[in-house]
Recover the amino acids of this structure.
């Protein structure tokens, strides 16, 4: 008998499970219409106990097909920037505020569409469960959608990027731009935008060194 769809995920109940189980359950989510549009759920990945958890907006075309977050052009830029900042992606948990790819067709291409408030809210229990199970010291939001999903609609990345916040759900929160915005920047601005992004991640790296949290897999 096929498993029943999940129309109302419960973050508190999910947080009592392990990440692999939550990941499996997320594939049955029908809490918003995007499950009909995306090829598959794209859940987060990385070690439980990661010091840093990075949240993007949603999977893109490559991520939707691969079933993994940040494997397309923006993901490659993120990987390069993390290396420059001195952060090992293998020790970072990466995920998205929305777990399905929202798109519209244009010829043979699938063009990204920004998720709306309902779709973001429907996915929030999965993100809350990830944050509870990973228990990072630092949550980094990439772009306005991720930042506002976590901090509220009034939050402005343009105003507060790189600043430290201390919300009740994590020790430190930092927002910066999404790497896709750097790829879309005019050619004469792209290098400067990339350097600013790396500088934000270097601040995150410095914060990570002073949190005192043990490395993934070790007891605190």
């Amino acid at each position: 008998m096929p498993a029943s769809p999940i129309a109302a995920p419960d973050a508190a109940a999910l947080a009592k499970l392990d990440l692999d189980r939550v990941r499996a359950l997320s594939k049955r989510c029908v809490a918003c219409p995007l499950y009909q549009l995306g090829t598959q759920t794209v859940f987060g990945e990385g070690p439980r106990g990661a010091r840093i958890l990075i949240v993007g907006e949603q999977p893109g075309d490559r991520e939707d097909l691969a079933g993994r977050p940040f494997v397309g052009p923006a993901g490659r830029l993120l990987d390069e920037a993390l290396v420059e900042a001195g952060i090992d992606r293998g020790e970072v948990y990466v995920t998205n505020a929305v777990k399905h790819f929202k798109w519209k067709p244009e010829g043979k291409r699938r063009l990204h569409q920004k998720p709306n408030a309902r779709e973001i809210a429907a996915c929030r229990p999965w993100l809350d469960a990830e944050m509870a199970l990973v228990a990072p010291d630092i949550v980094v939001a990439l772009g306005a959608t991720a930042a506002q999903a976590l901090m509220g609609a009034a939050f402005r990345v343009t105003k507060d990027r790189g600043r430290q916040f201390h919300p009740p759900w994590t020790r430190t929160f930092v927002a910066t731009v999404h790497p896709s915005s750097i790829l879309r920047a005019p050619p004469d601005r792209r290098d400067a935008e990339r350097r600013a992004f790396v500088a934000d991640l270097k601040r995150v790296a410095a914060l990570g060194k002073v949190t005192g949290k043990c490395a993934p897999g070790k007891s605190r």
The chain has a mean pLDDT of 93. The chain has one domain: 11-209.
